[in-house]
Amino acid sequence: MDQTIYFQDNFFSSGLTEIRNQDFIKLGLLDLKTAFSRKVSLLDLDRQEVMRGMFVHFFSRKWKVIDAAGIEQGIVQQKLFSFTKTFAYYKPNGAHFRIESPIFSREYNIYDHNEELVAQFNRVSSFFSVPAFKLDNHSNELSTEELIIVIMGVNAIQKNNNAAASS
Prior knowledge:
By secondary structure, the protein is mainly β. It has one domain (3-133, 145-166): LURP1-related (Porin), CATH 2.40.160.200. The protein contains one helix and twelve strands. The chain has one helix at residues 144-166; strands spanning 3-8, 16-21, 26-31, 39-43, 49-55, 62-67, 72-78, 84-90, 96-102, 107-111, 117-123, 132-137. It has a twelve-stranded antiparallel β-barrel. Strand 6 and strand 7 (72-78) form a beta hairpin. The radius of gyration is 15 Å and the shape is globular. The model has no long low-confidence stretch (mean pLDDT 89).
């Protein structure tokens, strides 16, 4: 199932933003809640929640991915002590995925446990604008909706890292 979509964060990480496909057709919305809660919900066109993501707790470096029924789909966490930007996505069924990017790159690859490329995403916004992302999903195992929440988790973890480094 190959699918390319675009979505973005917002200034102050709050409010609604659109999710669009490569033909610029609106597929859904991201509800970025508030800048202080660090939660995000993916909504369908009827504004019904499909997936959501949030930090496990306030000072956590782990991002939880939850479906509309409230069932945890996985955890995103950053791998430390690496010369690349590396994250992992762990599913409750034991499946795991590696999310990796060269240190100064805006392009990320997501690999399954067999080291096969299942998705790619990159930050397509400029330095002074809000983060916007392009996702190419090649996976039958991970839905596009789930990957969007995973990517927003990677983005949230990086924002926390940047805030900690500047204080």
